[in-house]
């Protein structure tokens, strides 16, 4: 199969191309099932009949969104706006320029603000840098953005906001909004989502039956990154009572404004028990990560957007004498075995339009990057390549999974309107891209699910991969003058992964009867797990330990101090072994759409695996089943 990098987006029809005439190109049309062809001639658009069919299905919505079908006109202004709005608050008494009246306002009780006990921290740069980040023309209104406010929207206020939007939707026809209770945080705070849809009901079965793409928007997994939550309250309001309502003709949207309420209340990155939930989406050790996993399992989103903020100065000032300059850092799933077409769609259909939308608002962007806490280590890495973050896990679940980071950590409320504006711009672009590609996304999901399922038993999988080292010029800011400063850094690129380990995909995995915790976590991820009801045997490969040590888990920033030490093991395979399958043992098939996610969890010799992180007791608890088993199985509860 071709492994060429995604190039420029082909805006008409469904195709991916490297946009270099004469080179091999890979075309995928959606006339019935996908067909994949290699061609040496320059790209030709898909059949006109399919293009006409797309327009006949209601693509006037895309026109409402101010993006012509074959252009890249950026966002915002909001859909339907005739001029640049001066405010983004439909709750204002006067309708702002560019907005249509949105009906009765949503009343939200705002918690009184206590006098600040300490002065806000001084910004890590001077007036020359601050001048590079003026407030946008739009003024956003949420409880946490109120004039004179010193604290962000509380969880009680957030709940009231979502509840009132759901109540208001019940008074009208067409749009349905409902609050979904996802569970509670470690300190008992509710974790809630708002689903907005035109389906006949908001329950998962009805939404899935409508066969429209669902977009899942997640904010504030890190409690000290508030801009995403404030932006998603704005997005929720505009979907229910404002000018984003037309997107619901073709898509569903689920909004989780605050995934980590305890961290938000304490203004800390981690959850209450000190775990970074952003890297807990495979192990699911925190109730907060389990809540998101359950939501994704039930509603199976085709597009996921995770909103974060990044550290502006700190170790960058220490290492490079400069600070980060971009309004947004962007990325998508970059881990081994994400389907090729999912990566291409993320780049061409989503990231490139986000970049254009931000640029049109005079907002800068770059690839997401980070650096370790070690002052002597001046390497800069794109986001992590391990299958533990939301974006990487959702990529392995065959979703378009996007990361948006605004510049916010370490600067308090400084530039908060601009940070929210950046998130709103990026999310609006994603919603528009989903509308324009709604039919294509349905076909993409169907295709990659069949492709992943078919790889079991007969194709090799990359078990562990690493970024490719090189060098790159980063444009940063001089902290005194505010001028651009280009710095050449050692750069780990996650766009080009190096294979560290690979092996043949099994047909499935047999887990011992004692592997209850692992089986439960797999089911939370949506991976089918069946249980053996009558003793039998399987033909498989067993693991033999060749080396073992204990150490801290690593990520792109260095040691992950919030996690327990992991078992680092080297293995060899004993092939063709007949293994007993006792009653009560678990069988996890790999010939299913989440087969690659099962590999990420169950191959023991990787840092993110269930074995390395002590969810499985020993190597003997897992067998790679290499032929279709003849076992009596039932669905595991």
Short description:
With 637 residues, the chain is α+β, with helices and mostly antiparallel strands. Helices cover 26% and strands 26% of the residues.
Describe the structure.
The protein is α+β, with helices and mostly antiparallel strands and 637 residues long. It folds into 4 domains: 1-56, no CATH class; 170-454, Aminopeptidase (3-Layer(aba) Sandwich); 461-498, no CATH class; 506-635, no CATH class. It has 15 helices and 23 strands. It has helices spanning 48-56, 60-64, 127-130, 155-170, 204-209, 227-241, 261-266, 287-299, 315-320, 340-360, 390-396, 416-436, 438-454, 516-524, 595-602; strands at 25-29, 35-39, 176-184, 190-197, 214-219, 252-256, 303-311, 328-332, 365-367, 369-371, 380-382, 400-409, 460-477, 484-504, 508-511, 530-534, 536-551, 554-555, 558-559, 566-581, 586-589, 622-625, 632-635. An 8-stranded mixed β-sheet has the order 3-4-6-5-7-12-8-9, sandwiched between helices. The protein has a 7-stranded antiparallel β-sheet with strand order 20-17-22-15-21-16-23. Helix 10 crosses helix 12 (416-436).
């Amino acid at each position: 199969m071709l492994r060429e990098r995604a190039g420029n987006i082909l805006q008409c029809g469904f195709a991916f191309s490297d946009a270099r005439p004469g080179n091999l190109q890979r075309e995928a049309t959606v006339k019935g099932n996908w067909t994949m062809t290699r061609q040496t001639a320059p790209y030709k658009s898909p059949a006109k009949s399919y293009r006409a069919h797309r327009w006949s299905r209601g693509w006037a919505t895309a026109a409402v969104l101010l993006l012509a079908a074959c252009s890249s006109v950026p966002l915002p202004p909001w859909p339907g706006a005739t001029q640049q709005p001066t405010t983004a608050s439909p709750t204002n008494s006067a309708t702002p320029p560019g907005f249509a009246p949105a009906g009765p306002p949503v009343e939200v009780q705002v918690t009184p603000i206590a006098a600040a006990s300490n002065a806000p921290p001084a910004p890590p740069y001077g007036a020359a840098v601050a001048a590079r980040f003026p407030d946008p023309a739009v003024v956003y209104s949420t409880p946490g953005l109120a004039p004179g406010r010193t604290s962000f929207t509380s969880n009680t206020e957030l709940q009231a906001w979502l509840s009132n939007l759901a109540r208001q939707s019940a008074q009208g026809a067409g749009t349905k909004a409902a609050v979904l209770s996802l569970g509670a945080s470690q300190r008992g705070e509710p974790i809630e989502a708002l689903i907005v849809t035109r389906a006949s009901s908001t329950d998962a079965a009805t939404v899935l039956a409508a066969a429209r793409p669902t977009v899942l928007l997640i904010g504030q997994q890190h409690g000290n990154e508030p801009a995403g939550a404030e932006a998603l309250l704005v997005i929720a309001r505009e979907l229910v009572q404002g000018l984003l309502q037309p997107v619901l003709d073709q898509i569903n949207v689920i909004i989780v404004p605050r995934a980590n309420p305890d961290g938000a209340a304490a203004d800390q990155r981690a959850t209450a028990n000190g775990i970074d939930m952003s890297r807990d989406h495979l192990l699911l050790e925190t109730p907060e990560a389990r809540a998101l996993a359950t939501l994704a399992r039930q509603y199976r989103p085709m597009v996921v957007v995770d909103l974060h903020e990044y550290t502006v100065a700190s170790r960058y000032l220490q290492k490079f004498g400069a600070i980060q300059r971009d309004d947004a850092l962007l990325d998508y799933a970059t881990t081994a075995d994400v389907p090729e077409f999912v990566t291409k769609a993320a780049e061409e259909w989503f990231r490139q339009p986000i970049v254009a939308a931000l640029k049109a608002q005079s907002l800068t962007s770059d690839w997401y990057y980070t650096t370790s806490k070690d002052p002597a280590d001046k390497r800069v890495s794109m986001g992590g390549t391990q299958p533990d973050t939301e974006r990487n896990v959702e990529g392995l679940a065959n979703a378009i999974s996007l990361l948006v980071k605004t510049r916010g950590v370490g600067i308090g409320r400084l530039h908060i309107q601009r940070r929210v504006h950046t998130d709103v711009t990026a999310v609006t672009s994603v919603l528009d891209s989903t509308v324009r590609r709604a039919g294509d996304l349905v076909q993409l999901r169907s295709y990659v699910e069949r492709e992943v399922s078919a790889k079991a038993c007969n194709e090799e999988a990359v078990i562990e991969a690493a970024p490719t080292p090189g060098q790159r010029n980063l444009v940063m800011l001089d902290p005194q003058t505010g001028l651009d400063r280009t710095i050449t850094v050692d750069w780990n690129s996650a766009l080009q992964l190096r294979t560290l380990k690979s092996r043949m995909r099994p047909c499935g995995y047999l887990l011992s009867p004692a592997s209850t915790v692992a089986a439960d976590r797999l089911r939370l991820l949506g991976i089918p797990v069946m249980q053996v009801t009558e003793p039998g045997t399987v033909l498989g490969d067993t693991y033999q330990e060749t080396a073992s040590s204990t150490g801290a888990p690593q990520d792109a920033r260095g040691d992950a101090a919030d996690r327990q030490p992991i078992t680092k093991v080297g293995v060899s395979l004993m092939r063709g072994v007949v293994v007993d399958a006792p009653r009560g043992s678990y069988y996890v098939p790999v010939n299913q759409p989440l087969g690659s996610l099962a590999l990420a969890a169950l191959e023991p010799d990787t840092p993110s695996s269930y074995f390395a992180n002590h969810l499985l007791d020993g190597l003997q608890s897992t067998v790679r089943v290499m032929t279709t088993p003849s076992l009596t199985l039932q669905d595991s509860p």
